[in-house]
Write a structure and sequence with these properties.
about 210 residues; alpha+beta; three-stranded antiparallel sheet; 2 helices; about 40% strand
Length: about 210
């Protein structure tokens, strides 16, 4: 009887170890996909037809993107906003799951679902191009976008180069970076931290 108990315990331990290895592999696969997505935003030049959805309704624009900068054609001025700014913070506060592969704009894309660990936080889904690692589609409760067609270019045409400049600075450097006082909240909800600030002309986004 003791021998049978020992065998069963060893079998259970091996099964748990195998399940842990599988879970670890999935987490690493998701992280690698997100790291590649963030890096891809700075590299290719492409033209895309994009459908946007937000509080203002829906619109469709032609987007030209190069080196992390965007320009649009059409009556609506829209740009694809990267939903992730701090990967470690995201993985620390959300459960991120690689669901599978779907087709977006005729391209194979990995679908990643993001669910909050804290109450009253948003959830979303990302579709990441399997070949280029570009974010092809984003969906949350109140906004989203989807690339309907995508063409890669050698470079952005001169007439479409964006006139605005955006730069990011550390919070400690803000007082000398903008010509107006900046009030930073003294309290943040659980799971949040101050990350960085983006400056565009005289506008500030923290």
């Amino acid at each position: 009887m003791r021998r049978w108990i020992l065998v069963l315990l060893l079998a259970g331990s091996a099964g748990a170890s195998g399940a842990g290895a599988v879970a670890k592999g999935r987490r690493e696969a998701v992280r690698n996909a997100l790291v590649a997505m963030l890096a891809a935003e700075q590299s290719p030049t492409y033209t895309a037809e994009v459908a946007f959805r937000d509080s203002r309704g829906t619109s469709r624009v032609t987007l030209l993107r190069s080196g992390g900068r965007s320009a649009t054609e059409g009556e609506h001025r829209r740009r694809i906003r990267q939903p992730i700014s701090d990967l470690d913070l995201l993985l620390g506060n959300y459960d991120v799951t690689l669901v599978g592969e779907e087709s977006v704009a005729g391209r194979s894309a990995r679908r990643v679902d993001v669910h909050p660990r804290h109450p009253h936080r948003p959830e979303c889904s990302l579709w990441i191009d399997r070949e280029k690692s570009l974010l092809l589609k984003y969906e949350s409760k109140d906004r989203g976008f989807e690339i309907a067609s995508l063409t890669f270019e050698a470079k952005m045409p001169e007439r479409h180069r964006p006139s605005w400049e955006r730069r990011e600075v550390a919070l400690a450097d803000l007082p000398g970076a903008v010509p107006f006082p900046v009030a930073i909240p003294s309290w943040l909800p659980k799971g949040f931290k101050f990350h960085r600030a983006g400056i565009m002309r005289d506008a500030l986004h923290i």
